[in-house]
Amino acid sequence: MDFSFTEEQTLLRNTVQSLLADKYDFDTRRKVVKTAEGWRPEMWAQFAELGLLAAPFSEELGGLGGGAIENMIIMEEFGRHLVVEPYLETVVIAGGFLREGGSKEQQEALIPGIIGGETVWAFAYAEPQGRYNLADLTTTAKKDGSGYTINGYKAVVLGAPWAQKLIVTARTSGAQRDRDGISVFIVDKSAAGVSTRDYPTVDGRRASEITFENVKVGADALIGTEGKGLPLIEKITDEAIAALSAEATGCMKELNTATVEYCKTRKQFGVPIGKFQVLQHRMVDMFMAYEQSVSMTYMVNLKLGEGDAERTKAAAGAKVQIGKAGRFVGQQAVQLHGGMGMTDELNVGHYFKRLTMIDTQFGNVDYQLKRYSEAA
Amino acid sequence: MDFSFTEEQTLLRNTVQSLLADKYDFDTRRKVVKTAEGWRPEMWAQFAELGLLAAPFSEELGGLGGGAIENMIIMEEFGRHLVVEPYLETVVIAGGFLREGGSKEQQEALIPGIIGGETVWAFAYAEPQGRYNLADLTTTAKKDGSGYTINGYKAVVLGAPWAQKLIVTARTSGAQRDRDGISVFIVDKSAAGVSTRDYPTVDGRRASEITFENVKVGADALIGTEGKGLPLIEKITDEAIAALSAEATGCMKELNTATVEYCKTRKQFGVPIGKFQVLQHRMVDMFMAYEQSVSMTYMVNLKLGEGDAERTKAAAGAKVQIGKAGRFVGQQAVQLHGGMGMTDELNVGHYFKRLTMIDTQFGNVDYQLKRYSEAA
Amino acid sequence: MDMSFSPEELAFRDEVREFIANNYPQELKGGRRTRGEMSKEDILKWHRILYKKGWVVPHWPVEYGGTGWTITQRYIWNEENARAETSPLLPFGLSMVGPVIYTFGNEEQKKRFLPGILSADDWWCQGYSEPGSGSDLASLRTRAVREGDHYIVNGGKTWTTLAQFADWMFCLVRTDPNAKAQEGISFLLIDMKTPGITVRPIITMDGSHEVNEVFLEDVKVPVENLIGEENKGWTYAKFLLGNERSGIAGVARSKKAIERLKKIADAELVDGEPLMKTDEFARKVAELEIDLSALEVTELRTLAAESKGRGPGPEASILKIKGTEIQQRITELTMEAVGNYAFVQAPRMEVTGNEFLPGPDYAPGVSQDYFNMRKTSIYGGSNEIQHNIIAKMVLGL
Amino acid sequence: MDMSFSPEELAFRDEVREFIANNYPQELKGGRRTRGEMSKEDILKWHRILYKKGWVVPHWPVEYGGTGWTITQRYIWNEENARAETSPLLPFGLSMVGPVIYTFGNEEQKKRFLPGILSADDWWCQGYSEPGSGSDLASLRTRAVREGDHYIVNGGKTWTTLAQFADWMFCLVRTDPNAKAQEGISFLLIDMKTPGITVRPIITMDGSHEVNEVFLEDVKVPVENLIGEENKGWTYAKFLLGNERSGIAGVARSKKAIERLKKIADAELVDGEPLMKTDEFARKVAELEIDLSALEVTELRTLAAESKGRGPGPEASILKIKGTEIQQRITELTMEAVGNYAFVQAPRMEVTGNEFLPGPDYAPGVSQDYFNMRKTSIYGGSNEIQHNIIAKMVLGL
Prior knowledge:
Chains A, B: This is Acyl-CoA dehydrogenase domain protein. Chains A, B: Residues 227-370 form the Acyl-CoA dehydrogenase/oxidase C-terminal domain. Chains A, B: Residues 6-118 form the Acyl-CoA dehydrogenase/oxidase N-terminal domain. The complex is a heterotetramer, with two copies of chain A and two copies of chain C. Chain A is of the alpha+beta class. In chain A, 52% of the residues lie in helices and 16% in strands. Chain A has twelve helices and ten strands. In chain A, the strands form three sheets. In chain A, strands 1-4-5-8 form a four-stranded mixed β-sheet, with helices on one face. A four-stranded antiparallel β-sheet of chain A has the order 2-3-7-6, with no helix packed on it. Chain A has a two-stranded antiparallel sheet with strand order 9-10. In chain A, a hairpin with a 5-residue loop joins strand 6 (194-200) and strand 7 (206-217). In chain A, helix 5 (87-101) runs antiparallel to helix 6 (104-115) and helix 7 (230-265) packs antiparallel against helix 11 (347-360). In chain C, 44% of the residues lie in helices and 14% in strands. Chain C is globular, with a radius of gyration of 22 Å. The interface between A and C is large, with 51 and 50 residues.
């Protein structure tokens, strides 16, 4: 049992920290997310240059030989700076699908583009009627010669406006919510029949609604085995949850620090408000919520390699913890900052909004609680 | 719309208050519940003498012409003194069954015994497998000539050790959890085939497990229509819930008063602990929980005469409110009293225990929440 | 004890209901736009209709324009407005400065200001909070110095709701800098067109422009705009805050919002079944409804006590605390209900009508409503301050 | 980072597991009787077996009888004991006064007292709290006056757990009445057979006799029973309290208790289905399990930091707060699970074996366990005090 980071991991954290301290201050971010683009491709290029996009890939795939812990470190620091660039979608999720389910050919063809920063990916899985159920799919992929024809609609595809490629889940057989019959495809966003409508999200990102109308893909677009995609999808979304948990702890850390700092300096009735016992205890509860979230984040990241049941419990458990803690810490950080906490000018509201959306991503507390209690 | 009490109601409250102040101080009660009997028949006789047992009956039934509000007033004051005598079981429940479902003959034969204090009743409805579902019955009553033969087992029949008569729910037809086929009977505890085992409860009362083995009752034992008993049972248990809510507000009132008083006098670190803001806000939350409970208690008692759906919502809602508030107020009263709150010597723990058991009685928060959300 | 309405009250309800149905502007129907999204004229439309009818200030004394309704009639009026989702009237004139003027103002002031409040020809805003003052209102630092028959006001106010539209501001200023915190404060009425006043928008995290900073630089205010006595402003300020809290429970509007939440949860699916039918969501909504039922009776009890001359008193703080908790929780569950579409950012200002808003009609903006409602536990005396008030005034701690 | 065990650690686990299986007294199996229901000899049985094996104080330095286990081995040891539901050892000697004696005591004292602690020939109790002192331990008023080579002690202690069986009490007394609160306190070891000591039971609301009042009237204590320096007792007291908190998370035992809760909820029926299969109860148990998982890792992180020489530090207060909240919640849900049979009062003292206890075997006493566990957020520094500690020591507020 060991909870320490290797030297390389500490180095990685330092690299990310100094880059973000230098290039990702709050005001810069605020301006960037209001531009038409909404992100900085040049920042993405810097991530690539510094090797961040290579961190979790094995050396034989051209990566730096890291794994979940490296994702965790990067995502925690990204959370602290509210980074909007699609590391989660591209490296953790698309990278994860290719690493865990891709053929050697797919890996060799596509991972270099991720590592090099040339290709940005998005994950088109959710559908309006499906809510958080990964298997509730009406999008279909029909066998068509050696390839497939995809038809369907995907909702709230985060980062899609910036992406060139999509991971798309579709039903190749079975009924709407069957566990069997689900397959995973790689689709070029520029392919004929793919149409997108983009819009901003409340946490300063971008998303698209995507329609697939007779989109033809080749046999090489299929990741893994036809009809057996769900276990792979579950594994990768759990990896995404592990990364999101780290991002959430980064947000909470900043909120807690900011709140304690604010309460030490802000005076009311002649004393710093941090002297009021009720606020002190509130901040202690925020601190404990954060610490418990860090613990669950460690746990899920250390258990991603375990069997399905254990991994599910760790991921669902972590998502519940950060969902509840994120809500509490976010709400109270706003409350303790008073009116200032409500403004767009201060970073507090932005962390709060991001934490709120993290709870929604891949299923909120209720959904994950049910998933936890149903896991064997 | 009017939230004031009539002069008679105020008089009734004063009567109860002065009786209990005089005869029902905490130390006396503590001694009484430890005796072999566990209650005071002479107190019951006084209740009768003062007309309390007649309060909610109409004048033509020999009562004082009151109703739910009178029950509410009496039960609230009983809650403040942790009265163990079975007013709920005898007057509210058995009285309620006779009033609402009894024939003229039954009313004339039996209500005088209640009003006069001669007959004590208990309500044998719960079964081990049934939990809080009033319809989940394995006790059967089979038609036998003009009467019935009852077989079955009833769990945790509160007040039964003191009772002469029982209201018993049994299935005359239908399957185990059917809404139809349930009937309500009057059974003498001394009837052949009725056997009881008595035991103390954690809130200072007594209960019995009761076995019915080929217990024969006449046709006149049936209250209401054979097989159609459930709506009546639901109505009367809602009346019981309304009365329990009042008892709970009485308990909370005492706990809040005691806690505020204690925190004003008890010193730690050189100041009264009531000066610590965290404890102040805790007591404010206790106060608000109490006020909201009073509101729901008024509401349910004013809505007992409405249609089934509205009555159900009011009763389930009140039970949820007092369940949650009772838990919070009870736990925090103990917490704020520190070690003293844990002792058998102080009244605080006894109110806490009673509030805890009130939540269990007739279905806890979870059960009533479900019932509320399922009510039309 | 009785919770039902008399035949007269039922008739009144029908009258009110019919009036609203026939007179509420068609184009405003549908409810729940935030003021940040509405034009000045839209905000005032309903006010002007009620003014014509004579129903704009049911809570004022009859002599100043009140309707003379009983507490129960006012309760019915509020219920019916919530039921029809009419857009709430602005409180700044009607509930805040108006009662201060008719209670503490002189005849001149009443004549000068009350008509404009009633007709909505004057738009008022509230100059209470200052940067740095927060819940500690009495720490304000905006100075007013008497020079001849004017005060010269310097300083700044913040969180000034809808000041961008305001004609007048009622303002707390410090007239005696040497007095203790709550003394030496005066209550001034300031014409927003006076030179030296600058209004700067504050955008809140949901993207709305509801609040502003107001800078005051050598602003000349005639002495006849002083309410009551110089240095006694705190008394009037407290009176106003007491009035402000009494309506804040928002029970009737919360009922309507829960109805809407339930409709959304009926439309949203979980594994093909309505979300509203899932055990967990149904329970959360039930808890909310029960909390609101209790609060409704608590408010009625407070009103009943008030109509007998007791209160409103510090018990009104319960209404603020529970009322805002419930409002916040409703927006939270509504956001939860829409699932992934909670991500959608709806425009709050400068709506062009051409924005792409994905998902069902009810979804866009629900997260922003949730973010926006966090303010309710902060403003009007934070919920922590309300706890302090109850602890001190009710529990005697 | 790694959460798995090495092969050596797995082997150690097997060894421990086997030892417990072979040696834990048959008659004590089944777990969860409270100490208030056990005889003195039963309480000590497991202690004596471990003493023989040399495993009674894994957390002590090897020179005084410790096992020299790593943090991970100690974690495994705790896990395995919880798994087998062994009855916990009394902390008063092993975790409280023992470490004080070997850290601050002189050689004489170590020789005199440590063997009796290890063998359990001496039963210790804790003389810290006093009537009126509560969380403000330093306000204690029990006086010790030096007279020749004795102290004369007068005063009283309260909440003294299992003092009815005790041979010795470690006791905080005031030796300098003029010093400030935390100064002038000394740490004395008192023979409970000394004349002038009276023990009076305190019955708690669950009907148990676990705690007592101890009256001290002109009790003569030899000066050689003073630990460390006179008037420096507060240092030793704080050291002891720090040790006390570190084990208080109770993670392993809570895991076992949740297992038991789940079994009960599997056996209890709701409309013919196991309670554990109902959405609502399953969720509540899941929340509890997740809280506990998080706490387990939090504790492991604390232990890891400790093994590197950092901590335990004030972070241990989290373990106390969350640990006791979880323990309380488990008993609460267990009580809820048994439904109507929560009413049953099980005898806590003088069990005759003839009591009629209705309902399933697991039901009687669960409410009393719930009532009893309310103490955990009060004792050992109330959870409010723990919040104060974190606010001050960790957050710097």
